[in-house]
Design brief:
Elements lengths: L2 H8 L16 E12 L2 E12 L2 E6 L6 H9 L6 E6 L2 E2 L4 H6 L1 E4 L11 H10 L8 H11 L15 H14 L4 E5 L7 H16 L3 E6 L2 H7 L2 E6 L2 E6 L1 H7 L8 H9 L1
Parallel strand pairs: 3-8, 3-9, 6-7, 7-8
Antiparallel strand pairs: 1-2, 1-4, 4-5, 9-10
């Protein structure tokens, strides 16, 4: 058996393209009229969108557009000033514990525990959601191998490069069987091989019926990877839809890129 097929099987995913998930189209993440204020500064205002099962949504915008604030409100790091976030049917504030059980998050700058090894760090994070699954050892080895972390598994996280730290956080997030996966600038600092593996893993996770929200300012990546785009500008949602829908909304040409659309919206 080819090594890649073996990895996919150990990760619980078939080597051949899977059929469409039975829950396709079900909203797993709903952001409704979300606003967040820091003192007198309104960071994001009246943001609403959904991410459905079997869908990758790109949250795009320039630095300071409010992408990370939205993600932190979704995760529960920040409390919304107004509005709601619902994860797999659970309110992120009123039912915080239940909501977080269905959520995985990879921050832009992973905050790893300095006294833990790579393997210990990943196991610790997975255990916070409950007992380790019976196939944890095999799935962990497969994912660590996939991201070139297997030989590093006994090293302290403090000895890792930024890219290796990022891949450690990614491995921990995807080993947890979350319904909703949030990724904040996940490709920054990762080597080309790791980028390819992460993109493939995101696509496989979508095929398994999960909802993925990717925050990025890399518009060409968002255009190729995401099913729909939510475009933020200065804390407000300026547009939402597939690339074709965005072109139609702005009367852009049929070949307009996401970058060209973004420049027009930001003018």
């Amino acid at each position: 058996m080819h090594e890649r097929d073996l990895l996919q099987q150990l990760l619980g995913q078939p080597a051949t393209p899977p059929p469409a998930p039975t829950n396709a189209g079900t909203p797993l993440l709903t952001v409704s009229a979300l606003s967040k204020r820091y003192g007198r500064t309104l960071a994001v205002e009246d943001i609403s969108f959904q991410v459905r099962a079997g869908e990758i949504v790109g949250l795009v915008g320039a630095n300071g557009a409010g992408k990370t604030t939205v993600l932190r409100c979704c995760v529960g790091i920040l409390r919304p000033t107004s509005g709601t976030v619902t994860i797999a049917g659970y309110d992120s504030v009123q039912q915080e514990r239940e909501a977080k059980r269905h959520l995985a998050f990879v921050p832009e700058l992973p905050n790893l525990y300095p006294l833990l090894t790579v393997a210990e760090q990943i196991e610790f994070i997975v255990r916070t959601y409950g007992p380790l699954p019976p196939d944890y050892a095999a799935r962990s080895e497969a994912l660590l191998t996939r991201f070139d972390l297997w030989e590093q598994r006994h090293k302290l996280t403090t000895s890792l490069s930024k890219g290796m730290r990022q891949k450690t956080a990614v491995a921990a997030a995807f080993l947890h069987a979350a319904q909703v996966v949030l990724l904040d600038e996940p490709l920054i600092g990762i080597d080309p091989s790791g980028i390819r593996q992460l993109k493939d893993l995101i696509l496989e996770t979508r095929a398994a019926g999960k909802a993925i929200l990717v925050s990025t300012h890399l518009l060409d990546t968002a255009e190729r990877l995401c099913d729909r785009i939510v475009m933020l500008h200065r804390g407000r949602k300026r547009a939402e839809g597939t690339l074709a829908e965005l072109r139609q909304q702005l009367a852009a040409g049929s070949t307009a890129t996401l970058e060209e659309i973004f420049v027009e919206l930001s003018a």
